[in-house]
Every structure is written in C-alpha cells, then in structure tokens.
Amino acid sequence: MANKSILTEKTTIPTPTDQGNMTTDKQLTVVIAGAGFCGLTAAIECKLKGFIPILVESYPTSRTQGDVLDFMHNAGRHMLAWDNGSVGKKLLETGVHTAKTLDYYSAKGELLYEEPWTFHDSHAHTQFAGHRGKQHQILVDYAEKLGVDMRFGPQYSVVEYIDSDSETGVLTKGGEKILGSLVLACDGPRSLARSQVLGLPDHKVNSGYAIYRAYYDITEELRNNKLISQLCNPDEDQAAMFMGKDMHAFVYTWGKATQLAWVLTHKDEHDIGESWSFPGKVEDALADLERGGFSDFLKEVVRNTPRDRLVDYKLVWRDPIPTWLSSTKRIAVMGDAAHCHLPTSAQGACMAVEDAVTVARCLELARGEVELALQVFERLRYNRSHVIHMSSLSNRDRAHLVEWTPEKAKEHYDSMTIPHDDWIIEFDCKADADEHFERLASEVKSGKTGTIQQLSVPAGGSFEDIPDHIKIDQPAVAIASTISNEPVRS
Ligand SMILES: Cc1cc2nc3c(=O)[nH]c(=O)nc-3n(C[C@H](O)[C@H](O)[C@H](O)COP(=O)(O)OP(=O)(O)OC[C@H]3O[C@@H](n4cnc5c(N)ncnc54)[C@H](O)[C@@H]3O)c2cc1C
C-alpha cells in the first residue's frame, strides 16, 4: 500500500508570512509559565516573531509516559509551518499516519462504521496522532533550536504571579524573580494563575469517569498473537474505537506494527488522584471490560500491557471561567488553565495550540500594546473555546448513552462519530486574528461594553444533540450539576 502521508517534495508548506519579517515597535519579553503544548507553542511563535520568550516549567524533562494525542488540522497546520515543514514531518512519523480509516466497533466487536482517517487530502500532513511524550520532545527540540530560553525543573515552579502596576512576572520556587512585559499562564488544569491572578476558586468536579492510558511496544511474539495480529499491518497503521455502555476505548497501532496505545474511559469507582502517574491495574481494567461485555480482542490488548505502562487518570471537569485576563490585562491564562477539556472533546490540545498561535499574532499586530493585544486575544478565543470545551460532555455521551448496533450506526452514524465539522478542524486561528484584529482593537479602545460573550467573535458553529429516541433508557450519568450548555455570564 502506498504510504499516503509522508511529506514529499511536492508537499506545500504554508508560507510563514509572519515569521520574523514584521517589525514590532517594542521588543517584548514574554514570560510563559508551563511548557505543555500551549506554553511551548506560545514560546515558539513568540520567538519566531522576534519577541523574547522565557519559559519556566516545574517538570524536569519532557514526559516520556503517555499514550497518544491527536492534533487535528486546525492545530497541525500551524506546526507544519515551522522550520520549513521539518517539525511536522517528525510529528507525523511519531504516530498513526498510514491508517486509512478509524473503525468504530460495538463492545461485542461488530464493525459499526469506517470513518476516513483524514477528512481532506491536505490533512494527511497536518493530522498528528502520535505518542504524547515524543510529540512533546519534538516541540522542545525545536524551541531549543530556535534558542528559546527554557528553564525546566522544580526550582522553576511558579509560586507567585506578579501583577502590579510596576511589575509583571513570576516568582519561582528557587527564589528567582522573572519579570517581563506580560505573562502567559499556560499552567494546565491545576493552574495556580486561575486562583492567584483571577481570584477564582478551583471548582473542580469529578466527572464520574477516569481513563486508563497505556502505550507499549508490539513484540514479535505479540505480532503472532491470534487476536493482536488483527491490528498488526506493517503497511497500514490501525485505529479503532470501541463503544460500550458507560465505557469507550481507542486502540492505535503504528510504526510498521511495532507500537500500540490504548485508552479506556470507565466509571471512576476508585479514589484516584488527579495525577499523570497514578498507576493503573491491568486486572481492574480487565474487570471493567468484562462488566461492559467487551470482546476478547480488547481484553487481549489490555492483558498484554506491561504492568509499569498503565496509568489511571481521573477525569476532572472544570466549568468555563468568566475571564482569562488579570485586572492589569498583562497576564492571560490560556490552554487547559483557561478551559480544561475532558479528552472527549478531542480538541483540548488543539485549542491550547490555537490560543498560543493567536496570542502571539495579537502581540505582533498590537505592536507593543500588550494590554490591547491580550484583550483582543480573549475576544477572539472565548466563544469558540467555550463551545468546544462543552462538547467534551456531549461527545462522551455519544459513546455512552446509546447501545450502538450496526443497524443504529447505519442510520445515525453522524450521532455516533466524534464531530469533526469544518468549523472545528478547518479553522485557521491566525487568519481569524488577521480578519478581526482591527475591529476588535477599535472596540477595546472605544470602551465598548457588553458581556465577554457579546464582545467576542461568535464560536462559528455548535454541536448536534443525540436524538432522544436512540438513547439508552436511562438518565445521563454523573456530570457536574453546575454545567449548562449556555456560555457563562460574567
Ligand atoms: C487522556 C487524555 C487524552 C487527550 N487526548 C487529546 C487529543 O487527542 N486531542 C487533543 O487535542 N487534546 C487531547 N487531550 C487534552 C490535552 O491533553 C490538553 O488539553 C492539553 O494537553 C493542554 O495543554 P496545556 O499546555 O494547556 O496544559 P498541560 O499540558 O497540562 O501543561 C501545563 C504545564 O504547566 C506546568 N505547570 C503547572 N503548574 C506550574 C507552575 N506552577 N510552574 C511551572 N510550571 C507549571 C505543568 O507541569 C505542565 O507541563 C487529552 C487529554 C487527556 C487527559
């Protein structure tokens, strides 16, 4: 089979029109807290624009643990623009890219639907479904190549955000005061900035679910295993989703059938902490699969997981927050710190990348006016991010609240599949900033009033409800009582 998505000489790399060839009136020092995909992207984009990013991260290295993370075209298109496409090429090769389809199965293993792996030909070079730790390392390497000032380690943990009239910056655990023109707080779900800078309590709510996450090498012995061999095609990566009552799973294989990752969202019956590294037990995952009536195939994938490769990660829900900006408008929270996605939006990291690309573009267009840039940034991002954040819940229910059969899937496949409408994945946040910046800037300057929803650019789309008549006859399970599908009011 032809390898459909390796970058070829004919691949068009988006022209990075804005990379370093626009002069800014002021050379900004951008202090960035947190080197997840949001902070790293912000650092790279700011460096490419001639700013001086200083990135601090409390974790000592790139995380090696982890399963797969899917970047769709709306995020990947910006990464492909980096370093003449070399970053995108590396990201592509670290994960699933020769798959033709994402196959949906019932718990019993009946094939429900075959969805194309990419939705448009151009996405073959911008859809990165790879090993999370390796993807992260690729971004760290690129930032290093650009000369970004990155400071990793517990001593660089931010303990205080400084946001006074005279100073903007952070204080680290090691006692270093790092000041800049602004701070981008990309400090993730348990953001300190959310409480310190915005004064918001951490309203986390147990979503009622947790997710087992695992990644392992497929050995020769496993390739010959009767069940696992079904996922081993050296010429074509494989991607499958399994839909069961209150549970769903993904299994990916790639790298010429040498790498496997699986995740299983399940009811959270244990008091696990909100941590990346909480070890999961294979026996517990197997018991969950047994309860859900899953086929032997998925059980075999789980059973062969090396004991030290399984993590059980609590899925915590956090409501949208009313503003992302500090009162001085020189600190912004972004990425999961501003909108902490459940994995079922399939867009959390993509939104984090979009935030980062947008903020850098706004800083460039605002020519040194930091407060203006951050206010426009918030108005560009707020509604889109809110609507996609909320889809974390509805997408999960697509899998959990319907007992999918081949007949139901045939008639209602659009209610079953993860929504990938054009307004979500074809979106170009940089072009969006270019289109709306001047208008939003003049509205900020003129003091236009309204709620953040009214002042912000419309989300551009919404998510379809699952038809009631195909739902299992039971109420929706354990979600935060405070959640509404309406945007929050400020
Ligand atoms: C199981 C799972 C699967 C997912 N799958 C997808 C997917 O397929 N596609 C998708 O788009 N999204 C997915 N997501 C969501 C995605 O992982 C997140 O939305 C995204 O990683 C958020 O990035 P971030 O940089 O904002 O936050 P994080 O990745 O959490 O990064 C925050 C960083 O800040 C650091 N930090 C925190 N506090 C401090 C401090 N005080 N000082 C210094 N550093 C600090 C942390 O160590 C961390 O490195 C998934 C999430 C989960 C849990």
TrEMBL record:
Region (Disordered): 1-20
Gene3D superfamilies: FAD/NAD(P)-binding domain (3.50.50.60)
Pfam families noted in UniProt: FAD_binding_3
GO MF annotation list: FAD binding; monooxygenase activity
The FAD-binding domain, residue ranges: 28-197, 330-363
Keywords tagged on the record: FAD, Flavoprotein, Monooxygenase, Oxidoreductase
Entry keyword annotation includes Flavoprotein: yes
Family statement drawn from the similarity comment of this UniProt entry: Belongs to the paxM FAD-dependent monooxygenase family.
Name of the protein this chain belongs to: FAD-binding domain-containing protein
